[in-house]
Design brief:
Elements: H1 3-10, H2 46-50, H3 57-69, H4 78-87, E1 89-92, H5 100-111, H6 116-122, E2 133-137, H7 141-148, E3 154-158, H8 169-181, E4 186-190, H9 193-197, H10 201-215, E5 219-223, H11 232-244, E6 249-251, H12 263-280, E7 285-287, H13 295-308, E8 321-323, H14 326-339, H15 344-350
Bound molecules: glyceraldehyde-3-phosphate.
């Protein structure tokens, strides 16, 4: 399988650039060809947020059901989409028993994600397909940076008292600065969910603005902890505050809530991304994370992104999976693809 086949299947190329409009008109089509200008954020606009308050859960659920039912990935193209899922992955270890050795093994897996026979069978030896980043706790940043040096793989750190964000702001900012100093070029921060419950939007906005400043050149992913937020309205409003405060990505979950990434909640967030683009002209990335562990689930998410936001959101600068075990299932399915032994379920799911 060649890159050409992959690109043809995924849709028009997103790699070449045209400048974004300074400010897009409402209902502007999402760009299909773009340069990622970093989101500078904007003033907290409570009036604009007010317009986002009405979220229709059943409409979102219907849309998700129709997208996943009528998915049009043909069997021959399954491998291409699965490789795209790998390229858009933050390969993660966030466990209480993480060690430097475990992080080195994770990095080795990121550098060589597939067994040699799979690489040769798919004809991708020259393509250097690997996860976009590894994602670790702060104490392991330096180890990960050393392990992936020269590979193009980013190092993301979950800083700010992950997973709950319940430490003084000064402590959380120091953790970001320490992660950046150790070489992390992506920082995944969590919001204190209580600020959402109390509708303390200004305080949440100010906190994220300080986090963005502490990141410097490192990209900022803001984790909302959507499973904790109780309503889709809260999810929409928190998404909007994070983007207004300068988030490069908004991310669903820590993987530690009782409910993690779900498609209807993800759809609400991508609609918020669309609304922010229409208001500002800036493109924000999206990272569903937590509980995404099957190849089939990864395809559902990719289809959602392509249908709702378009081709640029199949690129790692605008889309990531946060996942600890997804790569294992994708590898298994690619192996089955080569041997022609897809499980009946999987074949059905991908038909
Ligand atoms: O941010 C990433 C998540 O913590 C990963 O969650 P997972 O272990 O359920 O894949």
């Amino acid at each position: 399988m060649s890159s050409t086949i992959r690109e043809a299947e995924l849709g028009a190329s997103a790699s070449k650039v045209t400048p974004l409009p300074a400010r897009a008109a409402a209902n502007t089509p999402m760009p299909q060809d773009h340069r990622i200008a970093r989101n500078p954020g904007m003033k907290l606009d409570l009036g604009f947020m007010e317009s986002m308050r009405n979220v229709n859960r059943s409409a979102l659920e219907r849309r998700v059901a129709s997208l996943t039912k009528r998915r049009s990935i043909k069997a021959d193209n399954q491998a291409a989409w699965l490789l795209r899922a790998v390229a858009c992955m933050d390969l993660t270890t966030l466990n209480s028993n993480d060690t430097e050795e475990r992080v080195r093994r994770l990095c080795a897996k990121a550098i060589n994600p597939f067994r040699r026979d799979i690489v040769e069978g798919l004809g991708i030896a020259d393509e250097k397909i690997h996860p976009a980043a590894v994602c670790v706790y702060h104490p392991f940043v330096a180890t990960a940076v050393e392990a992936v040096r020269g590979t193009g793989i980013h190092v993301a750190a979950v800083s700010t008292a992950f997973p709950h964000g319940l430490a003084p702001l000064s402590t959380r900012l120091q953790e970001i600065e320490a992660s950046v100093k150790d070489g992390a070029d992506e920082i995944d921060v969590v919001i204190p969910r209580g600020l959402v419950f109390g509708a303390k939007w200004r305080e949440l906005y100010n906190e994220i603005v300080s986090m963005r400043a502490a990141c410097g050149d490192a990209h900022l992913k803001v984790i909302l902890g959507t499973g904790d937020l109780a309503t889709l309205r809260n999810v929409m409003l928190a998404s909007m505050v994070a983007m207004m405060a300068g988030a490069d990505f908004i991310k669903t979950s820590t993987g530690k809530e009782s409910v993690n990434a779900t498609l209807p909640v993800g759809l609400a967030m991508v609609r918020a991304i669309r609304a922010y683009f229409e208001e500002t002209g800036y493109l924000i990335g999206f990272k569903p994370a937590g509980g995404i562990s099957t190849a089939k689930a990864s395809l559902d998410w990719l289809v959602l992104m392509k249908e709702e936001l378009g081709r640029p959101w199949l690129e790692p600068d605008l889309f990531r999976f946060g996942a600890s075990s997804l790569l294992t299932d994708i590898e298994r399915q690619l192996e089955h693809h080569l041997t022609g032994h897809y499980s009946a379920n999987h074949r059905h799911a991908m038909a």
